[in-house]
Amino acid sequence: MSAKRIGGVVLAGGQSERFGRDKAEAVYGDRKLIDWSIATLRPLVETIFIAGRDYPPYPSAPDRPGPGLGPLGGLAGAMAAARARGFTHLLSLPCDTPHAPADQLARLCEATDSAYLTACPVIGLWPTEQAGKLEHHLAGGGRRSVRAWGDAQGAVAIDGDEIANINSIEDLERLAKR
User: What's the mean per-residue pLDDT of the chain?
Assistant: First the structure.
């Protein structure tokens, strides 16, 4: 069996409908939300992919099988890109969780198979060998819930602390006041 190689992905291709503008580019504290996620992933992974947009110098991973499929479309594209580069697993993080707990992400990285955080299922560890299966699921009109996909794959749900998720300008403002 080959050694476990973990790539990371920032899921940043959402439409930001509730936010009202491009959420990944919104500034929180001293940097853009997308940069918070990149900084969180950097110590845990070899390479970081950006799903759903170009964000040099990071490799872009277009949604698969096409755009508009939510986080699972971004995850499918990033899993395929990571697998093509020899990664066995992909650690996913959305662009709107600037304080994702490093200890919980490290626990995910220790998993041997699929795992996600119950507080935010889009934060997970996914074997890249599942890329084709996920793409086929989405192409067939399958349910687009990350939790449901993970559960169907036998993913381990890891409990932990609540994770602040920014869905609106008001969420961003509340977080900035803490």
Answer: 92
pLDDT tens digits, one per residue of 32-74: 999 999 999 999 999 999 999 999 999 999 999 998 899 999 9
Residue 84, pLDDT > 80, answer yes
Alpha-carbon distance of 10 to 1, in angstroms, equals 28
CA 134 – CA 153 distance, rounded (Å):
10
* Domains of the chain, first to last: 6-177 (3.90.550.10)
Residues 78 and 48: their CA atoms lie apart, in Å, by 10
Predicted structure pTM score: 0.94
